[in-house]
Amino acid sequence: MTCPFLKETEVKYCGTATVRKLIPLAQTGRTEDKCSSADHGSCSIWRQQAEVLGETAGGPCPYLREALMQYCGAASVAKLVPYSESLLSRCGNDSYRYCELYRAMAHPGLAAAEVDGIEVPGWLRYTSNHMWLDMSEDGVCHVGIDGFLSRALGTVERISYVWQKGVHRPTAVLTAAGIDLEVVFPNPFLLTGCNLYLRANPDRLTAEPYTRGWLFEGQPQAGTQYDLMDGGEARVWMEQEQKRINEYLQQQTGCAADGGMFATGLAGRLERDQMLGLFYEFFSRK
Ligand code: SF4
To answer: Which of 19, 129, 131, 272 is 20 to 30 Å apart from 186, CA to CA?
Structure first.
């Protein structure tokens, strides 16, 4: 699927000019559009070519070219890109759902199922260390942290990416309450990009973990979905995780859960060693 804001337009341009100036066809036909008529005889570029080839002006300029281009209808300044390029970018496939501009303009809702107050979107697959994978039919995948890990972290101060390209188990270092915590997606895939915007706005990671807080983008490999949970299995697991963390916190720290739900921002409430122990128990790749 392509982004609903992706628009098409036909353009024309001079095939001989060193700097290609694109003119949407909708704008042609204006009095200054000399390229489409015999007026191209007054063009200095055409005259240089015509002198060599012995051509005379008549009808549209023989160097006038046409092409199909696309542009983002949501952007304040439309930048035209060739049709083939937009298909490769996030605009021409399901990845548009993770585009900043798309989310800002369309405000798509999440409408995710919840398990005891933690969102568990049904279209995602989950790892046992609380990361999610979204695989689109276009062969693009996105990865982020789930609502459970977001709640445990609370405020994240800094995000660093270990790799930004190549086949890896995508890894990021999240700094919360001054503690560096490494999150690793357990299965490798071809990493094509990271959400670099989060480095300037780390709040998004935990405030919108399933949308604008995504971490990694890439192309799945054989084994990328290995041992992941989805549907009913994921919901049952999330329920068990909530019980397990409450018991863990009670045993290790003496903190009782408030109304069955552990407190937001454990990183800022626990001692450093306690937080590292909890992170190892629930969020490390084992
Ligand atoms: S830049 Fe974003 S909003 Fe614009 S067409 Fe591409 S995906 Fe859609």
So the answer is: 272
This prediction has a pTM of: 0.80
pLDDT more than 90, % of the chain: 51
Q: Does residue 167 have a pLDDT over 80?
A: yes
CB under 6 Å to ligand 1: residues?
A: 3, 5-6, 72, 74-75, 90-91, 96, 99, 101-102
**Cβ 201 vs Cβ 226: under 8 Å:** no
Task: Compute the mean pLDDT over every residue in the chain, rounded to the nearest whole number.
Answer: 87
Q: Are residues 161 and 276 in the same domain?
A: yes
- Nearest-CA residue for atom 3 of ligand 1: 102
120 and 11 co-located in one domain? no
Range of the domain at 59: 6-93
CA of 150 from ligand 1 middle (Å) equals 27
Q: Does some domain include residue 49?
A: yes
**How far is the CA of 110 from the CAs of 114, 146, 261, in angstroms?**
11, 13, 22
Q: For residue 198, give the nearest of 220, 177, 174 by alpha carbon.
A: 174
The pLDDT, as a whole number, for residue 101 is 87
Question: Do residue 130 and residue 23 come from a single domain?
Answer: no
> Each residue of 123-148: pLDDT tens digit?
999 999 999 999 988 889 999 999 99
Please indicate, yes or no, whether residues 47 and 174 belong to a single structural domain of this protein.
no
Q: CA–CA separation, 26 vs 34, rounded Å?
A: 15
CA of 81 to the centre of ligand 1 (A): 12
121 lies in a domain? yes
